[in-house]
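Long-time lurker. I teach an intro course on protein structure, and each term I like to show students one example going from raw sequence to a predicted 3D structure in token notation. This year I'd like something fresh instead of my usual example. Would anyone be willing to generate the tokens for the chain below so I can use it in lecture? Attribution to the forum is fine with me.
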Amino acid sequence: MSVASHPHTPVVVAGARPALWSLAMTAVVAGLGLAVIVVNTLVGYLTVGLSQAVPICLGLAGCFTVAVALRLLHRAWWLAVLSVVPALFVLVGSVQLAPEAVLQQRGVAQQVTITDVQTSGKRHEFALRGDSGPLDEPLVYRGSAPGYRVGQQLTVLTDPQGQVELADAEKVDVGGKRSMLVLGAVGWTLFALLAGWRGHVRRARGRQAMAPLSI
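-- Reply from a regular --
Happy to contribute to a lecture. Here you go:
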């Protein structure tokens, strides 16, 4: 007696997504990172002469958005947490590039001597004297270890239009800030590729976003 054969029924893994969908979402997250870099750098240029709070706040929001996007793509937090490293490069580079570029392009170099210092918390204001007399603008350092002392001679760059605050010429590094943006972009792109691949594998295995073993 023959036994009727039944057609094989494929097993559909819960939560699986087509590879094309995962690839598209990976491209979206990578593009989001690049968009954050471009937009925040542009805002930095548009707000030269104003408070840096605008690009700083916008940059923080953008970096947080990228981290959340990586979390959703990867379905785990550890890559999102590690993305803080390239985010720091992006934030510092996009905020400081514009004012340093302005000083490099139109700044006037002056040899000065530090004559006095006023400290308020972590804000240090160093009074300067040039060849033609005291400068109206101090050298401002925000931090706990400024590395400057009274009597020290150094070269500073001043903005003739008064939009960008005076800065130590040795600390103005436009090329370095651009390199930071490139490193940030490369880092975010690599994280997006890794998150997309691992997320695709997780979804193919039917893992849920809030699985107990997710970290």
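Some talking points for your students: The two ends are 56 Å apart (CA to CA). Residues 174-204 form the longest helix (31 residues).
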